[in-house]
Amino acid sequence: MATYYIVENNQQAGPFTLEQLAARGISSDTNVWTEGMANWTPASQVSELQSLFVTPTPQSTPSYEPEPAYTGGSSSSYQDSNEYVPAPKDYKMQSIILIAVSVFCCGLCAGIVNLALGIMALMENNKIDGFYRSGNYEAAQAASDKAGKYVKIGFIVFGVGLVLEIIFYIVYFLVAANS
User: C-alpha dihedral over 171, 176, 177, 179, to 10 degrees?
Assistant: First the structure.
């Protein structure tokens, strides 16, 4: 039976039998030498050692099944399983834009309403991450829905306020021009 020497930690080790090499878990890059070889050679190039590096083929290939998306329902059913639940939509940027618009672009009435709606949307957004991380997916989705509702109402109020301001200035200039 042939015995092999290997290079381990830059030092020669051995001799080892084929079974001992398998137990050591040598890699295909490990340099080996046996009687009759002229030089040290990577184990992958020694025909007697090829059986150490053959990977078994799986009996059946598992198929990929995508994770189901969160569609609502009881949060406890998701807490007890390992299913992935995507985070609800975040409206932080829209909330900040709404607050900025209310401060810089609106008249007094629409500005105050938009400021309040923007702050309320931002507060709901701050709840989303905490609920989601704690596994309370329904509460996270509810907070996201509320934030979205506040943002949408705020932008509607902004649009109506902008149209009313434009009408006010048109009427003002027409009256001033006729006087």
Answer: 130
What phi and psi values does residue 77 have, to the nearest 5 degrees? -70, -30
Q: What is the DSSP string of 28-83?
A: TT-EEE-TT-SS-EEGGG-GGGGGGSPPPPPSSPPPP-PPPPP--S-HHHHHSS--
Closest of 168, 151, 169, 163 to residue 113, by C-alpha? 151
Please give the single-letter amino acid code of residue 35.
E
Q: Which secondary structure element, helix H or strand E, spans residue 16, and what is its range?
A: strand 11-16
6 by DSSP, 3-state: which?
strand
- Among candidates 77, 124, 127, which has minimal Cα distance to 98? 124
Other CB atoms within 10 Å distance of the CB of residue 22: 13
Q: Determine the residue type at 123.
A: M
pTM above 0.70, yes or no: no
146 pLDDT above the threshold of 80: yes
Q: State which amino acid sits at residue 51.
A: S
Average pLDDT score, the chain: 78
**pLDDT tens digits for 11-59?**
788 788 888 877 777 878 888 888 888 888 888 888 787 777 766 556 6
Contact by Cβ (8 Å): 6, 31: yes
Report residue 11: phi and psi, to 5°.
Answer: -135, 150
